[in-house]
What we know:
Helix content is 41%, strand content 17%. By secondary structure, it is of the alpha/beta class. The chain has one domain (3-212): 3-Layer(aba) Sandwich (Rossmann fold). It has an eight-stranded mixed β-sheet with strand order 3-4-2-5-1-6-7-8, sandwiched between helices. Helix 1 packs across helix 11. It comes from Halalkalicoccus jeotgali (strain DSM 18796 / CECT 7217 / JCM 14584 / KCTC 4019 / B3). Residues 3-178 form the AAA domain. InterPro entries: AAA_dom (IPR025669), DNA_Partitioning_ATPase (IPR050678), P-loop_NTPase (IPR027417).
Amino acid sequence: MAKKIAITNQKGGVGKTTVAINLAGALNQVGEDVLFVDLDPQGNATEGLGFTGEYDDASGPSLYDTLLSDQSTINDILVDHDELRLAPSNIEMFNAEPELITEMRNRERLDMALEQLDADPDYIIIDCPPWLGILTDSALLACDSIVVPGLAESTSTRAVEILFDQVDTIEENFDETIAVDAIAANRVENDGESDEMMTWFRETFEPAVPVYEIRKRVALKRAWSNGTSIFHHEEECDMGDVFLEMAEVVR
């Protein structure tokens, strides 16, 4: 059985997709077979992995069809990347959230889709939308655990608290247990605000949940632009070691 990990924070702009792609790359680097599900209608991970054409193609089938129709399965939409297999997002995914509202078992659709996988990867990384709603709830219901990215700035405090309130609600309403594997404090800089937030992250979550410090590195941006994780990028980057540590924790 694949371990399913949702990368989630309803606050936008926290580097969620960077964390998701590089954690997937780290798992691949240590020999794991990874399926990446881009559940975000914005398709940043799909673009960041080099599949802009698949995102823009409205001729179908797509992840939208997988979640809302019995005419295709997730196996029909998978594409191969050097480091993983990808269930790409698609422009039609912007219609998924409102249309799922009236569907039966709407928050279970992703879990039902993953049950139809022909292959059995070691890990499934789910990149969630940057908001709370049916799609994020479906990822929380489908996953075994979460990794929470958050900026090292004061606005992260409330966002993380709201996310954990939602996790508690899902656990209570659906009788599920969702583990927290790690906190990824992202885009850390050498300033007072970052220092204060790192102290907050560590005092709030450690030692129960490890906190990883992801510093701003141009190499991470260039790897994304080249459609790969830092591990298949030509430049060396000290953040690779951090993602490898995170991969060992989630395994």
